[in-house]
Amino acid sequence: MASSDQIRNLIIQESKGYDPHSPTKVPKRTNYLPWDDYFLAVAYLSGKRSKDPMNSKGACIVDTQGRIVGIGYDGFPRGCSDDCLPWASSDLTENNADNGIGVEGDENAEHVLPWLHTREPYLCHAEINAILNKCSNDVVGGRMFVPDFPSNECAKFIIQSGIHEIIYVKDNSPDSDSSRASRILFEVGGVKMTKIEPSIPSISISFGESFDEQSTMGRKQDEKEMERYLGLLMQEAKFNPFESKVPKRADYLSWDDYFMAISFLSAMRSKDPNTQVGACIVDSNKCIIGIGYNGFPRGCSDETLPWARNGDCELHKKYPYVVHAEVNAILNKCSANVRGASIYVALFPCNECSKVIIQSGIKEVVYLKDTYHDTEACRASRIMFQMAGVKLRQYLPGCGNLCINF
């Protein structure tokens, strides 16, 4: 490996005089999001997709190369209606389900909701969903980031999947049987448990002031679905969804808001002091299979190559060296391919990214802004996208701002 002096001399020679040690060079951005905060933020953000009105959780799995290979949140299994199955917690009574007031610790309380009238028999936890949603062959050796210490049911699944470390923020019930069982299982199973405190209390994501009023429609309970499964639920559980006092959460993120938020969050990892862009690739099952942000290629030092937008010559600027978010998302994919997928980006792709998007088989580009619409690069992109049959769709935010509170 070349020494720092050798690399410096190489750059000075090949770039026609750019000196990485020059005091006048443009430095990299320093307030980028640290890796652990980023992975935790993905878990917390994913929890905002959950319909659980009591406790919405998310989980994020990272492989040995630092790539996100699995994301999940609390919810019912695929195909099981959020409007029909019960959302009440097992610690609610029939009298206080209206207000969501629990009777925790009072096992002998009268009128406790029947087990089949609570979410517990049906809910698939975020940790399990993240493993099942994996876009790689396996998650062996990976790390899982979660807000809360996993339950014993999740611990069994985590161990069996081969994950070697759990990174969590809090354990609200360390003396519960579930937490004790989890610690036993993790210790015996060789899974490292790491409690961390994020370096910042919260993260804000701003999409701007445009709102899509249509995105909040359809948030009421689907009475057709409830009617469809009424007989089944009454027969098997004696549960009438029309009489349920705990509906699903109404302010969950739409798919578009969620995927665009992931791309915005990923942009916070970029060291570019002028422009931070992220990209998120989603398959037909609504699973995230690739994430990227703009930056220099692997192994190319953020401290050495130029970050400037202007310079004495082209080789003194960032443009010959930076890899754009779209390309990184495609190259960071953990699935076999991205054919038929959609890519979410803040800015309409340039012609160089468009070529890679088309060649990779992506069939839809969802973008927020078309700032450089009249440039030749964007004109070339539109020509190629239309010829290749790639759908272009401008994203209309369903919310102006998102706040992730750790």
TrEMBL record:
Span of the signal peptide: none
Xref: PROSITE patterns: CYT_DCMP_DEAMINASES_1, CYT_DCMP_DEAMINASES_2
Residue ranges occupied by any CMP/dCMP-type deaminase domain in the UniProt entry: 34-180, 254-385
Entry's Gene Ontology BP terms: nucleotide biosynthetic process
GO molecular function: dCMP deaminase activity; metal ion binding
InterPro entries in the record: APOBEC/CMP_deaminase_Zn-bd (IPR016192), CMP_dCMP_dom (IPR002125), Cytidine_deaminase-like (IPR016193), dCMP_deaminase-rel (IPR015517), Deoxycytidylate_deaminase_dom (IPR035105)
Keyword Hydrolase applies: yes
Top EC class for this record: hydrolase
Enzyme Commission number(s) of this protein: 3.5.4.12
Listed Pfam families: dCMP_cyt_deam_1
Keywords noted in UniProt: Hydrolase, Metal-binding, Nucleotide biosynthesis, Zinc
Keyword NAD on entry: no
Names of required cofactors: Zn(2+)
Family membership noted in the UniProt record: Belongs to the cytidine and deoxycytidylate deaminase family.
Name listed for the protein in its UniProt record: dCMP deaminase
Native organism: Cyclotella atomus
